TrEMBL record:
<keyword id="KW-1133">Transmembrane helix</keyword>
<protein>
    <recommendedName>
        <fullName>Peptidase S1 domain-containing protein</fullName>
    </recommendedName>
</protein>
<keyword id="KW-0472">Membrane</keyword>
<keyword id="KW-0812">Transmembrane</keyword>
<dbReference type="InterPro" id="IPR009003">
    <property type="entry name" value="Peptidase_S1_PA"/>
</dbReference>
<feature type="transmembrane region" description="Helical">
    <location>
        <begin position="6"/>
        <end position="23"/>
    </location>
</feature>
<dbReference type="InterPro" id="IPR043504">
    <property type="entry name" value="Peptidase_S1_PA_chymotrypsin"/>
</dbReference>
Amino acid sequence: MNEKFIFYILIVLTVITNLKYTVAGSIITKVFDIEDAYWTPEKMRDAIPLTTNESKNNKPNYRTKRDQLPVKESNITSYNPYVPYGKLFFHNTGDGKNYFCTASVIRTENGNIGLTAAHCIYNGNGSWSSNMVFCPGYENGQCPVAIPVKGGSVEVVDGHYYYDYGMIKFNYDQ
């Protein structure tokens, strides 16, 4: 991964808050009923994966040498249903369609924040996505927990969507 990109992410994470890492099991702090909300299970299943229009030819050549590490056999015997990653569902106000992207949770002292691609929460033409909801552990059309998103911040590195990132704040007051 690009060292400049990692540097930007570390700066953003440090500026936003003092991070205190915890185990994934403590991530979920409140459960929301999505049946009466904008995002129904049917809308989530019908959402489109977001892609960019940027040509692969425009992709910057930030390559680093990949280390070849041996693959070790896993000793994991239990399943933890509280996962710090999932799908971010949103309504694109530019084209009126429903999309999804992946996102991850970062545990903080003042509430959870998430990390996703900037183009998932902001379309670059001056409009933010609406009706954003994060579903950690989303699998096979099932959203075990729906967490509303109330805001975000974006950064585009060198003007390329390949290296953009966005921070989202979860709305536990809804």
